[in-house]
């Protein structure tokens, strides 16, 4: 069976990616990162989603992107914004997807995997530069020259099935594939039990996506929903 490494954050998009990888016939090996993020609820969710979908293996790589700082997701001295803003938001984590894909590329070599799945999205997203098609194209080129597999002509493909889908489209597709979104955590500042704040950018995009998809939102919120 062909193999794939699936980057699994525990959120809505990556859970959908896992289901899509399995639907495409891959034996999926999930990979999560304990990178110094504000809460561990998403790591618990990633393991839960991986187990629910019967992934072949689940790994957690530990690294500390908080050491370089620069993001409200890794530096608790920076507040997570609860109002919409222009430009690249403070929740952008410098070099995160570059680092994550590089480590996934290494694991793919070891497993002799044919593909790497990542849930980047260039439609309903927060303006992050490492979610754009240009970034993915550049990394695909890198993969062909940076690895033994690439030099030998069989670098793993970088699969981005969500890249041009709206959040509503993603939820509809995942629902059709049996994704249980109640298992996922998307909130930037979820509490220890994985309950969402309902106010951050990620919560707004998630809530709007369920509304657009016509699917009941299973998200657990910590308090009253904002108007």
Automatic annotation (TrEMBL):
Domain of life: Bacteria
Descriptive protein name: 7-cyano-7-deazaguanine synthase
InterPro entries registered for this protein in UniProt: QueC (IPR018317), Rossmann-like_a/b/a_fold (IPR014729)
Entry keyword Transcription regulation: no
Binding site for ATP: 8-18
Classification via CDD domains: QueC-like (cd01995)
Naturally occurring in which organism (per UniProt): Isoalcanivorax pacificus W11-5
Keywords: ATP-binding, Ligase, Metal-binding, Nucleotide-binding, Queuosine biosynthesis, Zinc
């Amino acid at each position: 069976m062909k193999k794939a490494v699936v980057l699994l954050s525990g959120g809505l998009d990556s859970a959908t990616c896992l289901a899509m990888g399995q639907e495409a016939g891959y034996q999926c090996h999930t990979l999560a990162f304990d990178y110094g993020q504000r809460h561990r609820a998403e790591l618990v969710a990633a393991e839960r989603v991986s187990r629910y979908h019967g992934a072949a293996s689940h790994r957690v790589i530990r690294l500390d992107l908080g050491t370089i700082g620069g993001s409200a997701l890794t530096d608790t001295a920076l507040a997570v914004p609860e109002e919409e803003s222009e430009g690249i938001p403070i929740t952008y984590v410098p070099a995160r997807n570059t680092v994550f894909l590089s480590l996934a590329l290494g694991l793919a070599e070891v497993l002799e995997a044919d593909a790497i799945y990542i849930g980047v999205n260039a439609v309903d997203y927060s303006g992050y530069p490492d979610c754009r098609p240009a970034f993915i194209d550049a990394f695909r080129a890198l993969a062909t020259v940076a690895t033994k597999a690439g030099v030998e002509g069989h670098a793993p493909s970088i699969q981005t099935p969500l890249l041009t889908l709206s959040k509503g489209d993603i939820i509809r597709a995942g629902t059709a594939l049996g994704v249980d979104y109640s298992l996922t955590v998307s909130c930037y500042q979820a509490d220890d039990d994985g309950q969402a704040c309902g106010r951050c950018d990620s919560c707004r995009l998630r809530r709007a996506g369920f509304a657009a998809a016509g699917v009941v939102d299973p998200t657990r919120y910590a308090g009253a929903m904002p108007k």
